[in-house]
Structure formats: C-alpha cells, structure tokens
Amino acid sequence: TPMVAGAFDLIHQYFKSKGAKNALLSTFYHHVDMGGIRKNILALVQEKIFVLTMPVILIWGDKDKLLLTRGADKAKQLIPQATIYKITDCGHFPQLEYPAKVNQLILACIL
Q1: What is the DSSP letter of 21?
Q2: Secondary structure of residue 79 in the 3-state scheme
Q3: Cα torsion 49, 98, 89, 104: sign
Q4: pTM of this structure
C-alpha cells in the first residue's frame, strides 16, 4: 500500500512519548484479550451505537488486517444511516495512506 512519506516515522515518534505509550498499553490492558476486543466492550459499543442519529461515514481500507472489511459490513448493520467507503489497496491507516482521498470523501459529506 502506498504510504505518505514519513508516516511511519510520525507514528513511531508519537508512540515514543510516554503518555501515548501508557494510553495504548492501558487500552490493551482494559479492552483487549487474546481473542481480540473483549466481548463486554463490543456489547457496550453495540448497545450505545444506536443513539447515533446524525449521518456517519466510515472509511475502511480493504487490506486492513486489524479491522477486517467484514467489520465494515457489521458496522453498517449497527448504524443504518452510515455510508461506508472502502479504499482499494489500503491498510489500517487510510488517513495516512491516502490522505487526499480521505479528505475528498469527508469534504463531499460535509459540504
């Protein structure tokens, strides 16, 4: 997948900061187990997601190995008003891999 020059360096620099590292570790400790996101967290998200009444856009990389594309289909079931955009040849970071495309999609939805 194409990646904006220096994007990995930016991510690496971000996670070198103590606060970011602690936040990430805390997230994993409280919300993730060996099977992925804990079921009680997923249930809470599924329970609360129905309160969304505004338009929602989800931008998904079709090569995302962390949040598989079937997750986008599940999200559409949970958020019927959502519009899902799947970007071809894109991984987990569409905003870094295809920033112009992501900006275009967002602007088209809010303007």
Answers
A1: H
A2: coil
A3: positive
A4: 0.65
User: What are the two backbone dihedrals, phi and then psi, of residue 82, each rounded to the nearest 5 degrees?
Assistant: -75, 145
Q: What is the largest CA-CA distance in the chain?
A: 42
What are the tokens at 3?
Answer: 């990646």
Place of tokens 């569409």: 94
- Residue 3 clears pLDDT 60, i.e. is over it: no
Phi-psi region of 93 (alpha: psi -120 to 50; beta: other; left: phi over 0): beta
pLDDT in tens, 58-88: 999 998 887 778 878 888 888 888 899 999 9
67: tokens are 């949040």
62 contacts 85 by C-beta, under 8 angstroms: no
pLDDT tens column, 19-37: 877 876 777 677 766 666 6
